[in-house]
What does this fold into?
Amino acid sequence: MAEAPPEQREQAYTAQRWTNYVLGLLVFGLGIVLMLAAFAWGYEMLRGVDGQVRAVQTAPAVDNPAAPAGQEPTAKSGTVAVAAPRPEGPTLLQVAIGAVLKLVILLVLAAIGAMTASRGAQLAGLRVG
It folds into this structure.
């Protein structure tokens, strides 16, 4: 088969270069958007952890009803088992595990965004021919 004339080859290379450049910029932009989304979600997550830590289970103090006010319970006053009401809210461990999992997910998303942006930049700078 005969080769295409140089003019025709140059036009094909030019079209392919522009296609690579435009697709590369689009992929690069997508990667940047993914990274920005990861950082925005990370910021919101860190702001939310504050409220979760404040909601950690706490048991309110309960007075011992067997002792007269201001005195320590003695053997004469009797002993009464006092049960504090069941605390509500997440435990500190639950909050910590949730924060670590969210952080790992955000790091993975940021890494994917960075790799996508890198590939887009490579594609935009790709030389054909």
In short: Helices lie at 6-54, 92-124. The longest helix spans residues 6-54. The chain is about 65% helix and 0% strand. The chain has a mean pLDDT of 77.
